[in-house]
Amino acid sequence: MDVNLANLPADQKQKIELDKQAAYAVWKVVNNQAPQNLFEQEANALVDWQRDVYLTSVEKYRAQPEAFIIPNTEPHTHER
Q: How far apart are CA 21 and CA 42, in angstroms?
């Protein structure tokens, strides 16, 4: 089913944005781009229901850290 995100109610759009924010925060922490307390810092800047949505998303993404690891991008060397 196709859903146009622009047509969603404001609270649903906010939940999507909070989920994206949580995913990015987990990516930064997993890849040592931010400190472990980033989640707490960001959660403290949110109001009650937003904090709950954000922290639920953080836990969802922290349960799958391998999905956030930057792959090794060493140049390939071809032996001849």
A: 9
For CA atoms 54, 59, 63, 69, give the dihedral sign.
positive
30: number of Cβ within 10 Å:
18
Closest CA to 64 of 27, 32, 39, 36: 27
Closest by CA to 42, choosing from 34, 33, 51, is 51
SS3 54: helix
Which token pair is 23?
């995913």
**Residue bearing the bigger pLDDT, 77 or 29:** 29
